[in-house]
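As a warm-up, study this chain.
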Amino acid sequence: LGEDAGQPEDVDRLLSMLAHEGIFEPPSSEAGAWAPAKEARTEKTRVGVWFALAWVLALGGAGGGYYGWTRWVEHRHAEAARLTALARTEARRGDHERLVDAERHLREARDLDSHATDGPTLLLFVHAQRALEDGAFDVGFMAPSISRGERVHADEGYLAAARAVVALGGDDLTGARTNVEAALAAAPDDAAILYVVGRCEQRLGEDDA
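Now compare it with the structure written out below.
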């Protein structure tokens, strides 16, 4: 400024001063050096690999869970079958204490395998014995067992034998005889049914019971 006031700017001197201060870099006459194509290539994130790994892990977890669940169900069903077999032995003993134990084991088996038909079928025999051995001949508690047996399609011979006992308890002699005949027709050689039918025929006054 000062004596240079009003004079045109010396562009070259200004650029030289800026270059000296490092503010401005004059263009070079050399061609720019470009990076090779391989070095300039953009790195891609391998998302697909991670998605595939996640799918493999998810499928493996689902398969393992299904296998564990099926083994758990198999174990429950096997335990239910064991309890039912134990109850069958107790029911054949026939005394009051064993019948109570058999009923308890059958209820435990039902909790483990609610779709099995062996337990509800055997429970009909257990309850029929309890009713027949009871001095008061109270058969009211048998109705739920018969209803459940019908729902799960229990053995028809055992259902008929249980209905015969209930009919006897209600003084329905005709119904008792009808169900006795149905039980024998369904399973003429089954020891449990023959026992219940024989006791029913005794109460019916049959000579050949």
